Amino acid sequence: MTKLAVVLFNLGGPDGPEAVKPFLTNLFSDPAIITLPGIVRLPLAKMIASGREEAAKANYAIMGGASPLLPETRRQADALQAALSAARPGLETRVFISMRYWKPFADQTAAEVAEFAPDELVLLPLYPQFSTTTSASSLKDWARAYRGPGASHVVCCYPTAQGLVEAHARAISQTWLKAGRPDNVRLLFSAHGLPEKVIKGGDPYQAQVEATAQAVADLLPELPDWSVCYQSRVGRLKWIGPSTDDAIRQAAVDGKGVLVSPIAFVSEHVETLVELDHEYAELAQTLGCAPYLRAPTPTVDGALIDALAAAALEALDRGGAPAPFGTWRCPAAYGKCACRSS
Questions:
Q1: Is residue 271 marked as binding?
Q2: DSSP conformational letter for 230
Q3: Of the candidates 338, 340, 328, 342, which has an alpha carbon nearest to the alpha carbon of residue 156?
Q4: Which of 157, 187, 253, 342 could disulfide-pair with 226, CB 3.0 to 4.6 Å?
Q5: pLDDT by residue (tens digit) across 123-145?
Q6: Are 133 and 54 in contact (CB under 8 A)?
Q7: Sign of the alpha-carbon dihedral angle for 217, 340, 338, 113
Q8: What's the CA gap between 271 and 281, in Å, rounded?
Q9: Domain residues of the chain, as ranges?
């Protein structure tokens, strides 16, 4: 029986208060995040981590002291393994998890995959929209770590995959219906932001986020007032916009409430459970922006899991260089896309 290993990639998150500082240090040590020489970047990462440790601990305390990202990803891995086993019973399939900035790191997962000794590997980032700061960083880290057997197949991105789009649309629609179908809400698709210079350097992330939002909005004619915004800005660089807080302020000025969809996330974590559910909710209340609603992430929505399974199997059957799943193809300007640079 052919052995298939599917590796899911995500950022990871601290599993307790003592992990917060080393998690932050790992994050800011990544040259994809801070593009400075190591001799400068590593001390700077430690300094940033020290400066943010207490605030970050307070955020994770809201969630019980740890990030829920790994448990959420394990649920997705279990659901995906079941879907793949049902779709291809002739394969012996195992789904693994590799996190970028906290356990399980690529080295640990690579050893587990090598022990499984797969004939084929599918590398599947849980970032639907490709960026050099997420998917590319995780895939590079994996390439460094893995020395086991098997032919590798890479899913580059899947921003307009039908299952992803349907899962987001369902979460938004159910949130709106549960709130009583308010007609004075603006749908805000909120994604993690990036410095503008990253996008100008050929990173396709913003274009892919906007493509996801458009595809989801096309399924929601009952919510015609929508826009894309970006959260989590840090540092002094100019970031892509508009920012989520500015979008909420504008909605308040326009006499609107908001329904926020975390369009670039497929799992709940600190940016959804704290930033969206607490910080932006408090801002909206202060501004009189009501109602403030937040759609959940897809997590194990069946449509998302089916899309991930289809993406993995298409990559397995296709072979060769990294490629997107679904109808999306990056315009020529986005040379940093994995499928363009491979």
A1: yes
A2: E
A3: 338
A4: 187
A5: 999 999 999 999 999 999 999 99
A6: no
A7: positive
A8: 13
A9: 17-63, 162-294
